[in-house]
User: Fold this.
Amino acid sequence: MKVVCLSGGVGGAKLAAGLHDVLEPGELTVIGNVGDDLEVLGLHVSPDLDSVLYALAGINDTERGWGRAGETWETLESARAWGGEGWFMLGDRDIGLHLVRSQALRDGESLSGITARLVLAAGLETRMLPATDDRLRTQLVTPAGTFPFQEWFVARRHEDEVDALRYDGADVSRPAPGVIEAIEGAEAIVISPSNPYVSIHPILAVPGIREAIEARRSRCVAVSPLIGGRAVRGPLDRMMQRLAGGTTPAHVARCYDGLLDALVIDAVDATAETDGAVVVTDTLITDRDAARRLAETTLEATMENPS
Ligand code: FO1
Assistant:
């Protein structure tokens, strides 16, 4: 069964790992958000692609949610001591990947090209595609000014309320090679339980991607990132209140207007306001087993007409 998963952030990586486990090798294509990418200490960092790569390979830090397990921070400490930027926590093991990717990009390789090589080096058969090889950067418009994603999220601890978002570069970006073909050839499309505004909308902002999903022949199912109106982690509930006017499953579904055949929601939301078909299950991904169970339920929802 060919499955495409749109993924960003920690929730995306968790569900992608579950899908990876329950599907046959080679059946899954993950399309990852690049709106969070940044250049820091001369390195190109693609946090959302890396979260998926590390989770699939089983080398992710499950406590922190991002980066590698068993991480040390000597290089960053040294850089800080030499007057370098120290606000974005790059671990020693993580930096190894950023060095390889940054060199490849400097040598003219595309982001999708180097991502494919990293996946191969990790021994994975899942396909991982950045939404675009072009420069696309999410900007948060707040009462305190407009900030690139990581500056708002990490440096300013996402404390500023968000009035609007911009996906700089999206209008002139092109889908990375293979993205449209993967969507067109998919037998199921899954939108992971990621923040719609900062993780999924930047993918959909790449011209051609939303249109390809709208024209799908397969079913498209999203997993709600909210449980009982609250984000599992991060600022999504506050953002939804301000930008969408609420945090019910109906508000989540409206973030994906025209794209969904069903929304997978948690049992605690079973009686909340919905908009369209819903599938009710336990959506909290506490470990890899929970990820597999949610992946299976989500795939079932892509195969049948839920009531
Ligand atoms: N998140 C933080 O809250 N603080 C950090 O210093 C930080 C560093 C970091 C380094 C590499 C990486 O792949 C992810 C990192 N993250 C950090 C997570 C990242 O900011 C977010 O999880 C995603 O961008 C949200 O989608």
